[in-house]
Amino acid sequence: MLSAIPVFLLLLTLFSGISAATNEQWDLKPYDRTMEAVQQTTSVSFEPQSGSVTCPGSAHAQIARGGLCGMADTVGRYKIRQRHTHLTVTQASTGKKQRLDVLIREPIGYRGKAPAVLFLHGIGTYGTDAFGDIAVPFSSAGYVTMVTDKPVWDTTVVNHDYPAEARADVAALNLLRRQASVDSSRVGIYATSESGYVAPYVLRDDKDIAFQIFLSPMLFSPRKALGFFISEDVSIIGANSGYQGFVRRVVSIDLEVFGLHNFDIDPIDDTSFSIPTFLALGSKDVMTAHVDGAQRVMKLAQQSGNTNFVIRDYALANHVMRIGNEEDGNTRYADHMIDDLLTWSNGIVRGQRQTAPRVAGADIYQAISQPDDVHRKTGQTIYMVVLHVLLVLGLLTTLIFSLALLGRRIGRRIRHQRPERLFKNGFGPTLLGMSVVTVFAFLLFADGLAEVVIRVTNLCYGAAPQDPGFIGWSWYVIVGGCILVVWMWARVLTQMLVVGLHNMHMRRQEAVRLRRRLIAHGAQADSVSMRELRRRLARERRQGDWNSRHLFTRTPLAMGYALTVSITMLLLLFFFAFWGAFVF
Length: 584
Prior knowledge:
Elements lengths: L3 H19 L10 E3 L24 H5 L15 E11 L6 E11 L6 E7 L11 H9 L3 E5 L13 H16 L4 E11 L6 H7 L6 E4 L6 H15 L4 H11 L25 E6 L7 H14 L5 E6 L7 E2 L8 E2 L3 H13 L9 E3 L2 E3 L11 H37 L12 H35 L8 H51 L9 H14 L2 H4 L6 H23 L6
Parallel strand pairs: 4-5, 4-6, 6-7, 7-8, 8-9, 9-12
Antiparallel strand pairs: 1-13, 2-3, 3-5, 10-11
Helix pairs in contact: 1-12, 1-15, 4-5, 6-7, 10-15, 11-12, 11-15, 12-13
């Protein structure tokens, strides 16, 4: 027991050092930042002109809210005709082509050529069935709208080709402008979430876009955005700080090692908000940094000389600007948001002068600062890959070995033979106990992470946070289990050290006995080299019984199994150390 204490302390220091080396510390101050809105209502308004003073009957709701009377064509004014066409786009980096289905909605009976909007998809892969609940109101109010399949080629969520997507969207814009019903000088874009990375490329390639509408766009690099999003959400759901340390390590992974180049991109520049811009935020959006994002939009718009922008924060709206839990279905857009978007875009395409405040609606709030000190760690990523590959191989080998031994045991039972004993001197129960505790900690770790992911996902969908419960206390159990396993390892290693010293002593004794036997048979001790002694000694030992020569295992099979299980359990401890289980 006393001999195991220094070994335990050495192991604990080793694993704690690994946890400390992989730990991430971010400066998330200042906390609880707020931008106060100039007015609580989200309405937008423009200076009336002689041609925009007659109010259609359906515009009374806008009049009551302070919107510009009569200037905006309103929802439901026109019936809609929709038709499908197609567009073939090429990914420049690979030469691959994709045929995009294109859905065009046109207002029937619109006099002259109508303004138009192209909808840019968010994260994921979507078709022309997306945006129906926003494209239909726009078309019924006098806009030609276009929704295409998302151009993804063979990319996935983690390696979307944003410049190529932008070029595909520019091709879609040109197709939209060529429609006989469209006024090519009054075509805008509607971008949401991930398309915040695509829109800046579109603006660089197409200088004729009349306006842009952003709903909860991504305004910082994916690494910074993910760092903020996870840090904030894990705190909101009340998860133990150990889980937050885990996700910070995830954010520091260098995806360049895997050939993925999007994690640190930031396409936004001085031209990104140089045209009329409507930025819509939701007060319950837990995926974007509202204050930092709004300030960035305002700063870049002003730097480009654009004063024609508005920022609206809608109370109770989530990331997709809806009210309620998305999992429940039948959610609706935030109150008045569609009316505000239509009034604003109508004023823009008619060249009206805006009179509404730039920032309005709910006060814009941000719990923590956007982390600016997040960065990739290449060496740590390589270590992580090697460790996890070895761990997976160890777990698979242990599983196969265990199943083989189980089958062998069952076979002996069927043949009515006694079960084969593999271990002795209590090593079997020790190995089993160490393995059970380690695997239990691993399963608890995986269960805790799964629960954190589920709760964060529900939070993003708009659900209210629950009592932390399991994700609040489970990390302490994981840490306790890891410390217990380290102690068990210290006991085993100490016992192995004692056995090793004992075996060394026995080998010396055997060498002395062999030398004496040689002398007794008339040989001179000095004439017998150490190599000869070792060769004869080895021959005698090979002739002995394995069971009599090993204190822990009875057969070579048992030795192989013990080594496999021990190495795998040790790799699990290194796994826990990497992900921060030894940060105290």
